[in-house]
Amino acid sequence: MLNLIRLEFRKYRLARMLVRSLIVTLVLTALFAFFYFDHFLFENGIEGDGTTLFNTYTEAFSIIGTLVNIAYIVLGATLISRLIISEFRNKTIYLMFTYPVSRRKIIAAKLIIVAAWIFIGSMVSGGLIGGLMLISEMYVKVIPEPLSAAIIIRGFSMLIAGSVCSAGIGMIPLYFGMRKHSATATILSAVIVACLLNQNTHGFSLNQFIVIPLLTAIAGIIVVIITIRNINTVDIN
Hints:
Helix content: over 70%
Shape: elongated
Largest sheet: none
Order of helices and strands: HHHHHHHHH
Strand content: under 5%
Number of domains: 1
């Protein structure tokens, strides 16, 4: 399995994904900074009563999680499209299926790469943005809630839970992509799922209830199990 994973890295030059992850992290950091500082400085800070968009650190961590989850679920779908869907569509997967390795291990190796990238990318991006926010709070007090060790632990717990769920949820687009080997369906389904789970309407979000993203992640794991189980019967001709 490890040899297959290393082969995939060499084959697709997936080291480039690290660069893309860095770019995504920088974009998400800039976007969060806009929400973080703009409302405080220009809407209610300098010209108003000094209130902020975030009343608690939990709200700030929730926004960070939302941005990171949406980004990496969609980017995970692009990786699924590249590693799996496009190979079935172009029938280049046939070459790998001629190797003395089972089809199931080949597909499993590809999906491990995708899930690991979503999890690690979400952890690094969320941790970096959250860390920068906490550091900035030491100099510019934007969030009125007093900072404590319990808050930091809660934020880190939210980050881990969100990253694990995102890795599972990121597998759901595989189902839609494999139906007709469509890259468009893969990415579009990821956008829809990510937006549905992370949309915020008047302070209400489905992600507020841990059961919903958890069940959705389990659904993603079921998609993986079914795909791997049925891969021997997939016709690539």
